[in-house]
């Protein structure tokens, strides 16, 4: 009898182990828990754009949530407190390492079904001023809520509503807006006067006074109750359509109903002893970072002894950037509409050929750069949980406060992501980047992005998690930060605080730099030496980049937030604590 009980118990244990394995290999959308089963490294880390996001992510991890739970809760929180870029009216990308599984979620906005190639051109065929930036015509079908819902369904551990509660409270009871946010709102509100309802919602914001968003609290409450259904098919969907009709926008109930976030294969490339995992098309970010990292190694001889941020260093990197931007303009677009041969574009063969074209001593003329086969409102955050799982998330409403259109009755801003399409071949968008057929407007198509949420692995484990806002400067920034750490021996905070520079093929021979508002412009001497080589150098039109990075440090992590903005980073021992309901 006793022996029978032992057998039965053993059988039950084996069965439950088999079931556990099945759960962990399930690729579907069911609410399975993907958890790293190894002994937890115990320390968790967060690098995020504001202190509210940091606190909520930490609370979620302390409550037993994993990195995806924390990322979803942080995303909803920033939609309330980091109005500059946190959003439910935009879209983004999430790169995930959960246990041994690597996943990439594309929740980028889409062109409405009524959109068409020449929709922004006047009778003479010129792009109409500001139409892709301000007002309802500029809005792409939002993807954030669908993305967070999908990420949570596949990987989440805590109940969905627990991830929204902190954001609901902050919207309902108010939060203390950061001085930088208040300044920014008041500096930019003028551009929306008489064009959108932005000022009705945000112009009353003051430093030192709680800012409450009752309509947004209700919207988040409905999403907490009904999930993505509310946003795409329920009351929120109806309010979006009503706003579109009132503001002459294109998005219909059918656009919302048919929107889907999608799992995609991320860009994965071996580089030195690392594996780089980043955003695939419709982002150009992953392709660009891998091209830059590999090209630099093929040019190792030319880089030998070249000092960090010296004129020669900037010249070599600018030559690499040019080629990346030429490929971006010609070959990158939404893979559901345009064939992108990403494997060739990041192959050693192809990149070594591109590296060989670089002239280490002189600027290559613009005409010789043919494609071989490109303060605003984006934010990035990086999270590593106590099990070593990681999320790298970048999401956006694009340019300053998106389209400036707030969904009446629902209280959230809508993006102006349509500007990321090429409205006309060769005509630069707000980031100065040009495009062609690959990125022309088509109904239901995703606009090309530069967002690059990145995870770097070493021996299969997380080594770095990083990303940044900055439009077309995003991947040149991520590249420079990785190189600052690995080739110049900088700490993460030094690497992200350093002066950064950028070149993007056009404008011709122009180097711009970021770091001037924190006392780190390019030195005059370097500017002179670059001028001798034929470059103009000037501060970038906006102080670009707000890098949030986590890096492995023995058994623990280093987390760092860009000194350019109000990010907060934390490394902490996870304690078991229940959530405040
Ligand atoms: O997807 C893109 O590349 C842009 N819409 C990102 C915008 C951005 O980074 C603005 N922040 N500075």
Structure, explained:
By secondary structure, this protein is α+β, with helices and mostly antiparallel strands. The protein is built from 19 helices and 16 strands. It has a domain at 269-377 and 455-539: Gamma-glutamyltranspeptidase, large (L) subunit, C-terminal domain (Serum Albumin, Chain A, Domain 1). The strands form three sheets. A seven-stranded antiparallel sheet has the order 4-3-2-8-7-1-16, with helices on one face. The protein is globular, with a radius of gyration of 23 Å. The relative contact order is 0.17. It binds 6-diazenyl-5-OXO-L-norleucine.
Shape: globular
Tell me which oligomeric state these chains represent. Answer: single chain
Q: What ligand species are in this complex?
A: 6-diazenyl-5-OXO-L-norleucine
Nearest-integer average pLDDT: 92
Helix content: 25-40%
Instruction: Determine the N-to-C terminus distance.
Output: 48 Å
CATH superfamily of the domain at 269-377 and 455-539: Gamma-glutamyltranspeptidase, large (L) subunit, C-terminal domain
Radius of gyration, in Å, reads 23 Å
SS strand fraction: 15-25%
Sheet with most strands: strand arrangement: 4-3-2-8-7-1-16
Please describe the biggest sheet, giving its number of strands, its sense, and whether it closes into a barrel.
7 strands, antiparallel
Class by alpha and beta content: alpha+beta
Q: Return the CATH architecture of the domain at 269-377 and 455-539.
A: Orthogonal Bundle
CATH class of the domain at 269-377 and 455-539: Mainly Alpha
CATH topology of the domain at 269-377 and 455-539: Serum Albumin, Chain A, Domain 1
Low-confidence stretches: 1-40
């Amino acid at each position: 009898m006793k022996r029978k009980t032992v057998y039965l118990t053993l059988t039950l244990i084996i069965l439950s182990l088999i079931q556990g394995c099945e759960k962990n290999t399930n690729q579907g959308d069911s609410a399975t828990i993907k958890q790293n089963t190894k002994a937890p490294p115990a320390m968790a880390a967060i690098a995020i754009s504001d202190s509210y996001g940091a606190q909520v992510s930490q609370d979620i991890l302390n409550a037993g949530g994993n990195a995806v739970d924390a990322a979803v809760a942080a995303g909803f929180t920033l939609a309330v407190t980091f109005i500059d870029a946190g959003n439910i009216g935009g879209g983004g990308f999430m790169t995930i390492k959960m246990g041994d599984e690597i996943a990439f979620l594309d929740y980028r906005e889409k062109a409405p079904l009524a959109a068409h190639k020449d929709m922004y051109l006047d009778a003479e065929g010129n792009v109409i001023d500001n139409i892709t930036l301000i007002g309802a015509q500029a809005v792409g079908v939002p993807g954030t809520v669908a993305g967070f819902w999908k990420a949570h369904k596949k990987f989440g551990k805590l109940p969905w509503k627990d991830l929204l509660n902190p954001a609901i409270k902050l919207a309902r009871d108010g939060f203390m807006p950061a001085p930088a946010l208040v300044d920014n709102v008041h500096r930019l509100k003028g551009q929306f006067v008489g064009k959108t309802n932005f000022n009705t919602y945000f112009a009353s914001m003051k430093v030192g006074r709680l800012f409450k968003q009752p309509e947004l609290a209700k919207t988040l409450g409905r999403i907490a109750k009904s999930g993505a259904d509310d946003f795409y098919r329920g009351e929120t969907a109806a309010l979006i359509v009503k706003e579109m009709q009132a503001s002459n926008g294109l998005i219909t109930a059918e656009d919302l109903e048919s929107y889907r976030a999608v799992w995609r294969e991320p860009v994965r490339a071996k580089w030195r002893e690392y594996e780089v995992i980043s955003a695939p098309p419709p982002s150009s970010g992953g392709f660009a970072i891998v091209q830059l990292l590999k090209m630099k190694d093929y040019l190792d001889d030319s880089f030998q002894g070249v000092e960090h941020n010296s004129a020669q260093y900037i010249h070599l990197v600018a030559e690499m950037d040019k080629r990346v931007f030429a490929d971006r303009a010609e070959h990158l677009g939404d893979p559901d509409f345009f064939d992108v041969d990403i494997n060739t574009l990041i192959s050693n063969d192809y990149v070594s050929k591109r590296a060989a074209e670089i002239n280490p001593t002189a600027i290559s003329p613009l005409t010789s750069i043919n494609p071989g086969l490109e303060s605003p409102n984006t934010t990035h955050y990086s999270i590593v949980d106590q099990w070593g799982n990681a999320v790298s998330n970048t999401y956006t409403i694009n340019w300053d406060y998106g389209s400036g259109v707030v969904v009446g009755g629902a209280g959230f801003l809508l993006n102006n992501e349509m500007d990321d399409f090429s409205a006309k071949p060769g005509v630069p968008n707000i980031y100065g980047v040009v495009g062609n057929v690959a990125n022309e407007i088509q109904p239901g198509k995703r606009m090309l992005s530069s967002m690059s949420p990145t995870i770097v692995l070493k021996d299969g484990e997380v080594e770095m998690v990083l990303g940044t806002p900055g439009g077309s400067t995003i991947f040149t920034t991520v590249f420079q930060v990785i190189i600052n750490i690995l080739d110049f021996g900088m700490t993460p905070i030094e690497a992200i605080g350093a002066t950064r520079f950028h070149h993007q093929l056009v404008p011709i021979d122009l180097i711009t730099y970021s770091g001037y508002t924190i006392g780190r412009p390019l030195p005059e001497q370097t500017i002179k030496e670059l001028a001798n080589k034929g470059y103009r150098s000037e501060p970038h039109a906006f102080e670009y980049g707000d890098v949030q990075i986590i890096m492995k440090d023995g058994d623990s992590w280093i987390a760092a937030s860009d000194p350019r903005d109000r990010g907060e980073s934390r490394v902490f021992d996870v304690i078991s604590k229940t959530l405040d309901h």
